[in-house]
Amino acid sequence: GEDVEQSLFLSVREGDSSVINCTYTDSSSTYLYWYKQEPGAGLQLLTYIFSNMDMKQDQRLTVLLNKKDKHLSLRIADTQTGDSAIYFCAEGWQANNLFFGTGTRLTVIP
Amino acid sequence: NAGVTQTPKFRVLKTGQSMTLLCAQDMNHEYMYWYRQDPGMGLRLIHYSVGEGTTAKGEVPDGYNVSRLKKQNFLLGLESAAPSQTSVYFCASSTYKSSYEQYFGPGTRLTVT
Predict the structure, then answer these.
(1) Interface test mutation site (partner B, options A98, A100, A104, A105, max chain B beta carbons within 10 A)
(2) Fewer beta carbons within 10 angstroms: which end of chain A, N or C?
(3) Which residue of A has its CA nearest to B4?
């Protein structure tokens, strides 16, 4: 299967911006997703981008895609304590063929 | 509207025992999925269903069986549990039009000793 990699941990101070990074290997057209998992809960889809796009912005969230390097990032502006969670990057064209990264645990320090 | 619910939340099994995990959704979604989440790894798809009465294998189906007798329910069975099946199991559902937008349940933590 395809490979999706993320760093495991990130700590930021409240009010700062967070940048969570992901790399993937799929060379074909695909969708790329960011999910959030809060403690004791399932994954929640935050946003997604098609692989022919460079950027997508949704309120405090900005997704940047470097197609050449197959590098995806999620920027959270004005990070709040409620943003503390595990963030998963995933890629796939079909729902039955999604490949997930290991998740990045974001800790927001008050 | 409860979304996606899973039963039980926690379970400990001995090797060789069997059990069934229940997933229920009240959103009238056509598609349902079972994933497992292991430390240091992303979610991996076990089985999925695109409609009542139909199921299909995902990436890691061995040792599991599923059934979808009703649209709202998706059952995951372990006939003879093994320690390698110790994991957190997530159920998800989606519409067929937006199958990439999956709604997840809270998970079931299963330990096999």
Answers:
(1) A98
(2) C
(3) A42
